[in-house]
Amino acid sequence: MSKKFVFSSTEDEILIEYVQQNREIFDSAHPKHKDIHFKEKIWKIFSEKVGRTDEDCKKRWRNIRDTYMKQKKKLSTGLATSEKVNRTLSYLSFMDSVEYERKTTSNVKKSRK
Q1: Which pLDDT tens digit goes with each residue over 93-104?
Q2: CA-to-CA distance for 81 and 71, rounded, in angstroms?
């Protein structure tokens, strides 16, 4: 069973700041985004700065990113969000310039009506 980890809001802010400064972590269009060895070095540096393991930092980043994407969708539907969520959304606005949704193709033809 995995051990639960809890990041403080200060640790979250530090992590978000480091990710923002290293676009190759969150931008799939970045030339180094697929360079696993390069990104592992970056995560090691992050983990030292935050004081957590690199795996914990990666998990926490994925959680922050996924929560951000869900909250953005909720905002587009007009649902209310908490003050804490709004603060986090403002920290992550740098990710708005990145396209996350994958384009899909299908071999099923649309029916004409």
Answers
A1: 888 777 654 455
A2: 8
